[in-house]
Amino acid sequence: MKFEIIIIGSGLGGLQCAYILAKQGRKVCVLEKEKHPGGCMQSYRRKGIALDTGLHYVGGLAPGNALYPIFKYMNLMNLPWQHLDAEGFDRVMIGEKNFAYAEGLDAFVDTLAKDFPSERAGLQQYADIMREIGKHLHDAILPRDEVNFFNTSLFGKSAYEFLNQTFHDPLLRNVLCGSSLKMELDKETLPLYTFAQGNNSFIESSWRLKGDGSMLVESLVRDIRSMGGEVICNSGVEELIEKDGQLVAARTVNGELYEADWFISDTHPTVTVDLVKESTRIRKVYRRRIHSLSNTYGMYTVSLIIKPNTLKYFNWNQYIYKKPNVWTYYREDGPVSGILVCCRVPEDGSPYTRYVDIVTPMLWDEVAQWNNTTVGHRGDEYVAFKERKANECITLAETFIPGLRHMIEGHFSSTPLTYRDYTATPEGSAYGVRKDWHSPMMTLLTPKTPIPNLLLTGQSLTIHGLLGVSMTSLFTCAEILGKETVYAITKTE
Fold it and tell me: Using CA atoms, how far apart are residues 159 and 161, in angstroms rounded to an integer?
């Protein structure tokens, strides 16, 4: 079968690239190894309720915000989005004190300055950095000098050092990082740009779907097909075939050959280079570089189905930490001591939710002993391990929701092993390749590869998170369509 563009993987980045290219009249085919498209955006059903695997909330969807024009262009603003509480869309509980993140940078500063009045100048400095990043985010598609863009001072600065130099109160430093489960807080590596950009879009405005993440996936897939594109599941790619320095075909596990002029990989970069088994373009030094990149940690998620009419819906995300050790708690021994709690918007108009997710970081070392197992065949010890983690998460969540344990009708959990097996991400990494402020040029990948017609996309490139993946999709498509064409997407009204 011959197409103009083959896309490997149907995660958000792959589907967004397919949407943009199909809308521009290109003949596109997405090949997905699983039964359903979506990657970490897909959902699964238990007890009649659709449970999410990765999507919890989204930042920057109001008109004028960074993600709005992209989602508008992709027909995703028609989905039922719920605007989270502007006075405290994120709330961070450390010990027994709760602190609110207000929507809008000015309100964000004013709200936290009430609790930390002597730190207003530092809060304003941090807000100014976020404002500048948000203002110029889309301009990155048209950089005058690509190298200079990827090597800006903010990518080459430590987030941890910035916070220590800017804020005197250690509690405030923890509060400012308390909602950052949307990235890996690694004090040795995290760039200031990644930290500030990752928080800014949510401060612009925060939203969650009135429903599960598959609504977003289904919308993209439906539109891709309506524009003449194809999305084919149960078609994992096992080899990318090179001839005369160009890719010519993708071979799937079922023996099908898909020929194309361009190939885009939405899989992890190490998985991508391993698919190119014989190449005159991909040298050993490039393979070693890609394989040497460190990955961010994974996540443990326990999804709770709540008994009817027992837990009222709360229109914010609640972060809970036992102690002010937000940068290190996930590396320390002992029970789970930091979590995110968020709940599903009632779809029937009831004031009560039926579904709550609790999320906490999980290092690969915790599950490495089951490395050679597969989903559903990991043994009783693994089941007991997951159950212990679920109980620890629920116990901590009860400091915010007293009696939560007695409201639960059923619970289901996943670990980095789950994500590894379903998304082919090494070690089940939640955010792909770890960015390092010491060496931004080594850890910030561009869409280009040594093979001229093989491009990368997804969160392992420049920026992770939903906005980061959306921006990266634009970078990738710009290599095919041209930067001016893609830049116009960011001006969608």
Answer: 6
Supply the DSSP symbol for 198: H
Q: Enter the DSSP assignment of 158.
A: B
Length, in residues, of the chain? 493
Mean pLDDT across the stretch 77-89? Answer: 97
pLDDT at 234: 96
Calpha distance 25→322 (Å, rounded): 53
Tokens of 229: 């594109």
Q: Which residues pair with 252 in a beta bridge?
A: 237
Exposure string of 129-145, with b = 16+ CB inside 10 Å and e = fewer, is bbbebbeebbebbeeee
The two tokens of residue 398 are 């009860």
The token pair at 469 is: 């993946």
Tokens coding 267: 């899989």
The secondary structure element, H or E, covering residue 269 is: helix 269-275
Q: Say what the pLDDT of residue 306 is.
A: 96
Determine contact, residues 441/289, Cβ cutoff 8 Å.
no
> Could you tell me the two tokens for 329?
């708690």
pTM (2 decimals)?
Answer: 0.95
CA atoms of 17 and 348, how far apart (whole Å): 34
Q: Would you state the pLDDT for residue 152?
A: 60
Q: What angle do CA 49, 93, 185 make, to 5 degrees?
A: 85
Label residue 274 exposed, middle or buried (CB < 10 Å: 0-12, 13-18, 19+).
middle
What's the pLDDT score for residue 440? 86
| pLDDT surpassing 60 at residue 146 | no
Task: Extract the tokens encoding 183.
Answer: 């990235």
Tell me which H or E stretch contains 31: strand 28-31
- Residue 372 in tokens: 């050679």
Beta strands, E only, 326-469: 338-343, 355-362, 408-414, 454-456
Tokens linked to 420: 């590894």
Three-class SS string for 88-114?
CCEEEEECCEEEEECCCHHHHHHHHHH
Q: How many CB atoms lie within 10 A of CB 464?
A: 26
Radius of gyration over alpha carbons of the chain, in Å?
22
Strand duo 97-101 + 81-83: pairing: unpaired
Across 182-335, where does the E strand assignment appear? 206-209, 230-232, 237-243, 246-252, 257-259, 262-265, 298-306, 317-321
The helix/strand/coil state of 68 is helix
Which residue type, as a one-letter code, is found at position 346?
P
Give dist(CA 451, CA 30) in Å, integer. Answer: 20
Question: Which residue carries 């093979």 as its tokens?
Answer: 451
